[in-house]
Amino acid sequence: MSRKSPRPGARAALVGTGAGLVVLGLLLWWLQPLGEKPPSGTITFSTGTRAGVYQKYGELLRAELRKDMPHLDVRLLTSAGSQENVERVASGKADFTVAAADAVETFRLAGHPGAAELRGVARLYDDYVQLVVPSDSTVRTVADLRGKRVAIGLPDSGVRLIATRLLAAAGIDPEHDIVPRADGIDTGPGRLGKEIDAFFWSGGLPTDGLKKIAENSAFRFVPIGEDLVATLHESGGATRYYRATSIPESAYPSVQNGSVVPTMAVSNVLMTRADMDPRITEWLTRAVLDSRDGIGAHVHSAQLVDLRTAIYTDPLELHAGARRYYRSVKP
Questions:
Q1: Are residues 106 and 161 in contact, defined by beta-carbon separation less than 8 angstroms?
Q2: Torsions phi, psi of 258, nearest 5?
Q3: Which tens digits make up the pLDDT trace of 269-284?
Q4: Closest by CA position to 264, among listed 296, 232, 292, 294
Q5: Taking the model in full, what pTM does it have?
Q6: Cα distances (angstroms) measured from residue 47 to each of 77, 89, 107, 321
Q7: Mind listing the pLDDT tens digit for each residue in 235-246?
Q8: Residue 290, class by beta-carbon neighbours within 10 Å (0-12 exposed, 13-18 middle, 19+ buried)?
């Protein structure tokens, strides 16, 4: 029995489909670093408290990594925050983490074990210091916290580091001039006006833990002026990573009522160790930059991740795998 050849239109469609598959295959190959198969294995990512931005970012990044590296098992570990995160990576308890630049530099200047092995992957977004009090509080400045019950963050958090430095800059001894509480963003908001009179938080804008209570509770932010930031800079060391800025009116509109709040910020760095597999680090770096809009739809601060600034991971030098990625996309 003779076989009929496809009609000209059908033949063209088949050729077009085949060509399209070839182009798609080449595109997928090109999108993979050096045409390699995706890395596999297991990595541990240290995040933060459950109500904080680090945890949310880690969850969303893990979902993005599954798309690019389906055979890479990414395990998340909650933590107190930046200080614990840095120690975990330095000691090998975690492979990747996010930490504020001041906490990284503090760890390095102290000469802790493993500090020399820390490497940067990408500069992400800035943490904003948010000093919260009930709306009817008499506290108007940091100095007014004297004698108050103040949540200064968990012992190994980045918040604790910043809060104690800010209090000292305002002339307050964090151990004797206030009643310190070890609350973070997970418990501080619920205790405000009851067990505590104020709490410090340092995180991306807006932070879910504050955004939720802003809908039902009355609180306000205490401004942190440029004079305090200048005083911090005078003390040297890791304080050079603090910069004066403002919380924009769009962060918590129901609380700010169209007003900006003077404060200070510090950049966050995605980091790892020098001995981390360069291929995994390169692929992870690519995923971080490529997923900016997807993650940013849920974590607003992640929208600020940018290829032009991601490479500046001061105080850490870039990991070899991250450097290879940035070179591959350099114009």
A1: yes
A2: 85, 5
A3: 999 999 999 999 999 9
A4: 232
A5: 0.86
A6: 6, 11, 18, 21
A7: 999 999 999 999
A8: middle
Give one word for 33, left, alpha or beta, with left for phi > 0 and alpha for psi -120 to 50: beta
For the segment 250-272, the average pLDDT, to the nearest whole number, is 95
Q: Which DSSP helix (H) or strand (E) runs through 43?
A: strand 41-46
β pairing state of 118-134 and 261-273: antiparallel
> Do 147 and 327 form a contact (C-beta atoms < 8 A)?
no
Output the CA–CA distances (angstroms, integers) from residue 170 to 143, 229, 231, in the order listed. Answer: 5, 10, 9
Take residue 133 and report the two structure tokens written for it. Answer: 């009090």
**Nearest C-alpha neighbor of 82 from the set 101, 110, 95, 96:** 101
Other beta carbons within 10 Å of 168:
15
What pLDDT does residue 9 have?
Answer: 52
Q: DSSP secondary-structure letter at 148?
A: S
Length of the chain in residues, anyone? 331
Pick 313 or 26 by higher pLDDT: 313
290/297 Cα distance (integer angstroms): 13
Token pair for 16 = 């077009």
